[in-house]
């Protein structure tokens, strides 16, 4: 039940609000981020400012994106953040990260406690702006974090794993139990660090084909790829690429999915 008031604010279910209050977890996240003056720090979903306030004590300037009007107003008038904070009261899924970075002529360092209901769409949206991002630190539902970090052969390995590992190297930072939040969510959480892979410079057609081929493969994850992907690429062609047609979707590596997408992209040209 999201009826509990926290610092005078009632968490709003439609925004998926769970406010971090555990000081040990907060300090661990800030130590991992290690913010420095002169960096373009951007927080998504600062909420009541548990992390925001502490980072504000370490640096001179901080930008936040907060969709909740009341929370944005609270941060705007927070005495310890005055003169330091720039607030965009809007949906992060509509924010122009690339335009903001180019305007400031700096790469973005992004962090946040993401609402679980938008975490996956937001991560994919951020991947479309990956060229302007230095690194990212996100609090995520543990199930999502485990899928991001999974390797081939693992039950959690899927389309999200492939797409995320194509764009970034990822590392677990700290597990977070439900009681670290008010109100406590029904699931465990985990903070994950994302470091963009700078060699990722593929065409829109390649990205489309990588999305397409991973969707098709993992929609039928227990089928052998000669069946699930047979209409896209023949078994003969798979063998020529040193990819066994007998593999299932969960056994194909990120590199192999990229090989397949490259082949499709060339065929589409």
UniProtKB/TrEMBL annotation:
Catalytic activity: adenosine(1518)/adenosine(1519) in 16S rRNA + 4 S-adenosyl-L-methionine = N(6)-dimethyladenosine(1518)/N(6)-dimethyladenosine(1519) in 16S rRNA + 4 S-adenosyl-L-homocysteine + 4 H(+)
Gene Ontology CC entries for this record: cytosol
Entry keywords, A to Z: Cytoplasm, Methyltransferase, RNA-binding, rRNA processing, S-adenosyl-L-methionine, Transferase
Tagged with keyword Nucleotide-binding: no
Residues annotated to bind S-adenosyl-L-methionine: 18, 20, 45, 66, 91, 113
Record InterPro entries: KsgA/Erm (IPR001737), rRNA_Ade_diMease-like_C (IPR023165), rRNA_Ade_Mease_Trfase_CS (IPR020596), rRNA_Ade_methylase_Trfase_N (IPR020598), rRNA_adenine_dimethylase (IPR011530), SAM-dependent_MTases_sf (IPR029063)
Subcellular location: Cytoplasm
A GO MF term: RNA binding
Span of domain Ribosomal RNA adenine methylase transferase N-terminal: 25-198
PROSITE patterns, per database record: RRNA_A_DIMETH, SAM_RNA_A_N6_MT
Enzyme class: transferase
Principal subcellular localization: cytoplasm
Keyword Cell division: no
The protein's Enzyme Commission number: 2.1.1.182
Function, in words: Specifically dimethylates two adjacent adenosines (A1518 and A1519) in the loop of a conserved hairpin near the 3'-end of 16S rRNA in the 30S particle. May play a critical role in biogenesis of 30S subunits.
Record-stated family: Belongs to the class I-like SAM-binding methyltransferase superfamily. rRNA adenine N(6)-methyltransferase family. RsmA subfamily.
Matches recorded under NCBIfam families: ksgA
HAMAP family hit by this protein: 16SrRNA_methyltr_A
Protein name per Swiss-Prot or TrEMBL: Ribosomal RNA small subunit methyltransferase A
Source organism of the structure: Candidatus Erwinia haradaeae
């Amino acid at each position: 039940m999201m009826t509990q008031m926290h610092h005078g604010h009632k968490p709003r279910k439609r925004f998926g609000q769970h406010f971090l209050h555990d000081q040990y977890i907060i300090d661990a996240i800030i130590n991992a981020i290690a913010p420095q003056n002169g960096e373009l720090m951007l927080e998504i979903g600062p909420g009541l400012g548990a992390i925001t306030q502490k980072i504000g004590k370490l640096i001179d300037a901080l930008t936040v994106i907060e969709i909740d009007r009341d929370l944005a107003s609270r941060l705007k008038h927070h005495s310890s953040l005055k003169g330091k904070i720039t607030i965009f009261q809007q949906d992060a899924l509509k924010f122009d990260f690339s335009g903001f970075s180019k305007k400031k002529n700096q790469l973005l360092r992004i962090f946040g406690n993401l609402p679980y209901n938008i975490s996956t769409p937001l991560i994919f949206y951020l991947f479309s702006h990956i060229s302007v991002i230095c690194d990212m630190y996100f609090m995520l539902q543990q199930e999502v974090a485990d899928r991001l970090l999974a390797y081939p052969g693992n039950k959690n390995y899927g389309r999200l794993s492939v797409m995320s590992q194509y764009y970034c190297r990822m590392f677990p930072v700290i597990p977070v139990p439900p009681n670290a939040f008010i109100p406590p969510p029904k699931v465990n959480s985990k903070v994950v660090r994302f470091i963009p892979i700078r060699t990722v410079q593929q065409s829109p057609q390649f990205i489309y084909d990588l999305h397409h081929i991973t969707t098709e493969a993992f929609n039928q994850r227990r089928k052998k790829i000669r069946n699930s992907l047979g209409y896209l690429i023949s078994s003969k062609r798979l063998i020529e690429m040193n990819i066994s047609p007998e593999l299932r979707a969960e056994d194909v590596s990120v590199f192999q999915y990229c090989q397949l997408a490259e082949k499709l992209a060339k065929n589409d040209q």
